[in-house]
Amino acid sequence: MAEKGAVYAQIYDEIFINGEKPTENSQFFDRNRIYLGIGYRTSPRLALQFGLMEQTSNSLSKTQLQFSAFHQLISRKSR
Predict the structure, then answer these.
(1) Torsion region of 22: left, alpha or beta (phi above 0 gives left; psi -120 to 50 gives alpha)
(2) Which of 5, 14, 19 is nearest to 35 (CA)?
(3) pLDDT above 60 for 78
């Protein structure tokens, strides 16, 4: 478990693949999301995170601000 007051960065990239047969209106790669955020652990079981996500598809691209709260319900401490 992380300690209270910990600050962290999170980066991820999601690539969505179209499972259907490509047509003239669809492509193999359907969408891409890239995210960069910073988080703060308010307690050992609760973290708040703020970030920016860029979402791109075949027809549009948009940028979104994202705020998240993560709560850890179960903890398994190492023995």
Answers:
(1) beta
(2) 14
(3) no
Tokens standing for 27? Answer: 């492509």
What's the pLDDT tens digit per position in 31-77?
899 999 999 999 989 999 999 999 998 788 999 999 999 998 887 76
Rounded to whole angstroms, how far apart are CA atoms 79 and 75?
12
> What is the C-alpha separation between 40 and 57, in angstroms, rounded?
31
**Six token digits for residue 66:** 């994202």
Q: How far apart are CA 51 and CA 68, in angstroms?
A: 9
DSSP 72: -
Q: Is 67 helix (H, G, I), strand (E, B) or coil?
A: strand
Matching residue, tokens 């691209």 = 61
The shares of helix, strand and coil residues in the chain, as percent rounded to the nearest 5, are: 0, 60, 40
